[in-house]
Amino acid sequence: MSNLYIKHATIVTPIGREAMKGADMRRLNVIEDGAVLVKDGVIRYVGNSNPLRQIYSLFGNGATFREINAGGRVVLPGFVDSHTHAVFGGFRADEFRWRLEGESYMSIMEKGGGIQSTVNATRGATVAELVANADWFIKRMAGMGVTTAEIKSGYGLDYNSEAKMLAAIAQLAAKRYIEIVPTFMGAHAIPSEYKGRTSEYVDLIIEKMLPRFRKAAKFCDIFTEKNVFEIEDSRRLMEAAKALGYKLKFHADEIVPLGGAELAAELGAVSADHLLHVSDAGIKAMADKGVVATLLPLTAFALKEEYAPARKMIDSGCAVALATDLNPGSCFSGSIPLTIALACIYMKMTIEEVVTALTINGAAACGLADRKGSVEPGKDGDLVILDFDNINMLPYYVGMNCVRTTIAKGKVIYDSSSAFSN
Ligand code: NIG
Ligand code: FE
């Protein structure tokens, strides 16, 4: 836990302890010549930079502080990547090549490639190997301003291998580098040994996995999709997860409009994700029930699909979050800068909405909006200092990193100003 004082910052932040919905997503608080004081990892003061001595004596309790002069640069809340599959074995560059040559994601999956090929590699990996691979991604995320990341299991698809993935996620969390949110996703695909026996695999998850992973995972997620887990199997599995106390997430309406968003709303899910083919009824149900619509533009981009209808969702009163979906198949990218550019350019989100989507709404999608996602007293000292004094630079510098410094719980974990040497 660290003590830090940032002065002369342009602080730009949403305000609150819950997801921002609809038109509220544009409302950011701006403090010119602002200061943030973080003590023992928690924000104690947000306001004007002066007078410094008074701020220290009121909030510092005699402690020593690392001081950063932001020189007018923007300070944002740390970004929350609320949807990743950052733990996995092996790569699928060969499949990406087939897709470039015209094959579809689902046809590769139906032939036993796709998720199943990562399952085979993950089953063969040790916990240490999984941790080392994911650690490489997490460091790069931190360099793009991410201070909280959700990570899903779901490339094990049997008890031992799912347990191994959750152990790897727990080890990553224990490093306390950034905050990690663990999700159990045994229902990511039907493993080859259960081909044609979906409901037996659902039974296995309900009986053997869900009860035993309750402590290791905060969320339960499922790939609700035609020819994968259809609506009735999804309802059965997620009702069982809910009864055990898991919070729920859905991969919903990604490839065909199946009613995943409606089911997420019916079961009180925290988020429904992807939503490229969400129906109007699904949008209304999410807005009414406060389900965070988590949009993953890098996946649509990499699969050459239409983007999710972000504008329509926000205008209908939904809370929209943005995340990367980093995974070895459909979206081998964890690029926050490209996510921002695609959301602004193709999904017609405003820059303010994008900031909200990557901060407080991402935090809400992780069930952490009381502690993360805004620069306010009482919240964790998770902050991003940009290289610029204006958030307009974020999408304008297309696909490029604007992050100068990343701070997690008051500790500098990435600093680009010292990244180069002559
Ligand atoms: O979120 N849609 C399903 N699951 C992942 C892809 C996983 C993979 O291809 O390995 C996703 O896009
Ligand atoms: Fe995903």
- Compounds present? N-(iminomethyl)-L-glutamic acid, fe (iii) ion
Characterize the biggest β-sheet.
Answer: 8 strands, mixed
Overall SS class: alpha/beta
Query: What percent of residues are in strands?
Result: 15-25%
Mean pLDDT rating? 96
- Helical amount among residues, as a percent range? 25-40%
Number of helices: 16
Q: What distance separates the N and C termini?
A: 33 Å
Measured on Cα atoms, how large is the radius of gyration?
Answer: 21 Å
| Low-pLDDT sequence parts | none
- What best-fitting shape do the alpha-carbon axes yield? globular
Number of strands: 16
Structure write-up:
The structure is a single chain. By secondary structure, the protein is an alpha/beta fold. The protein has 16 helices and 16 strands. The longest helix is centred in the N-terminal third of the chain and has 17 residues, at 127-143. The radius of gyration is 21 Å and the shape is globular.
List the helices and strands and how they pair.
Layout: E1 4-13, E2 29-39, E3 42-48, H1 52-59, E4 66-69, E5 74-77, E6 79-81, H2 93-100, H3 105-110, H4 115-123, H5 127-143, E7 146-152, H6 159-174, E8 179-187, H7 198-209, E9 219-224, H8 231-244, E10 247-252, H9 260-266, E11 271-274, H10 280-289, E12 292-295, H11 297-302, H12 310-315, E13 320-322, H13 336-345, H14 351-358, H15 360-365, E14 383-386, H16 393-396, E15 403-408, E16 411-415
Parallel strand pairs: 1-4, 1-5, 6-7, 7-8, 8-9, 9-10, 10-11, 11-12, 12-13
Antiparallel strand pairs: 1-2, 2-3, 5-14, 14-15, 15-16
Helix pairs in contact: 5-6, 7-8, 9-10
Fe (iii) ion (FE) is lined by residues 83, 85, 251, 325, 327.
